[in-house]
Amino acid sequence: MDIRMLTEADKININKLSILTLQAYSKRTKIKLETLSGSIKNNIVILVTSFYIYYRDTLIDSKGKLNKEVLLKIINLSLNSQLLTSEARIKDLSVVLNNVNPYLLSAIDNSLAHLTRIVAPLSQMNPTKTLLPDLFLKFFEQANGIVRMLSLNLPSEAYSIWRTLHEAECVIKLLNEGGEALQNSYLKHIVYNNAFRQTLPSKEETDKIFVELKAEMASHNLKSKDMKKFIEYGWLFDCKTYDEKDVAYKLNFRDGLQKAARLEDYSAWYETASELAHSSPIFFYANTDFFMDLTLFNLGDSLVRVVKQLEEYCKSVGIDMASASSDVEVIINILFSEVKSYDEYFLTKYKDQLIEEDDDE
Q: CA 271, CA 255: separation in Å to the nearest integer?
């Protein structure tokens, strides 16, 4: 049922049931009603409304009165659902507090807030005008999402998202260091992708782009079957660190984008994240403690590298980062220090496992 179809009588009933449920929750948890968080209050109202709509057709008994048994069921269902949710969140928070370095997590969280404040005004989400600010902003937003997932005790899920973050840092590094020429090539391949997805304004424009695309593919001895990988990675041909004549370089992530960005040392970690993303056995039986450590380890390192890229970008365009966020220098220095300490902790803690993996290779 559409919530907009509720009558005034329905809304009055929902309000009364919500108040009763909130009172029951307050009594059960021994938390004063006036101190309950807004999110809990809001969630209880949503639960009550959902169960009310579900049982709406049975609310009126044979005598034309409200069925008290159904009303009580709605209250109990809403109460138990909220208690279960709260219990799970408290448990997750307890696990996180006991297993996560709070100083590193705070440093990452704090730096992301300041960095977003710096980048957001520069971004117009228009690649032809603000390409790099757009990419920096998206990177910081994605990193913030990983932090939120860690706080919900979802480390393996967070680590699978680090995979995308690592891909983004490779793109940012190459475009920032490659200058205008490489950035224009990247923009051209965005257009190629739009043509391939049939999202350009007209068929004539799409056909024209395809002629250009195929001609460029031919200049690199690529065939029709290579079109998708050329659209995604073909801009690497204009990257100075991508050697087209070296057979070790290919139009893919590991042997193309990551290799050109000189971040091959993270290929094993990337493959682990890929296994998680594709629901391999490691997805179902992931060691939560290890992936909490691993996610923080790689998230911190990726963030430090991208912050350095942002500093270089700001210098190149004459932007004073401190003017946008006066405390940013202190915040970044703390971040770098915490990440360095955590790297040492991680590499020491998992020294034996890391050596075994290296030997296997």
A: 13
Contact 339, 104 (CB under 8 A): yes
Angle at 112 between CA 175 and CA 169, to 5 degrees: 25
What is the C-alpha to C-alpha distance for residues 323 and 82, in angstroms, rounded to an integer?
45
Q: Determine the angle formed by the axes of helices 267-277 and 288-316, rounding to 10 degrees.
A: 120
- pLDDT of 109-158, one tens digit each? 999 999 999 999 999 999 999 999 999 999 999 999 999 999 888 999 99
Q: Enumerate the β-bridge partners of residue 60.
A: 66
Strand boundaries in 198-303, DSSP class E: none
* Distance between CA atoms of residues 99 and 250, nearest Å: 40
Q: What is the pLDDT of residues 213-270, one digit of tens each?
A: 999 999 999 999 999 999 999 999 999 999 999 999 999 999 999 999 999 999 999 9
Query: pTM score > 0.85 for this model?
Result: no
Q: Copy the structure tokens of residue 40.
A: 């809990």
Distance between CA atoms of 311 and 98, rounded to whole angstroms? 34
State CA 361 to chain mean position distance.
30
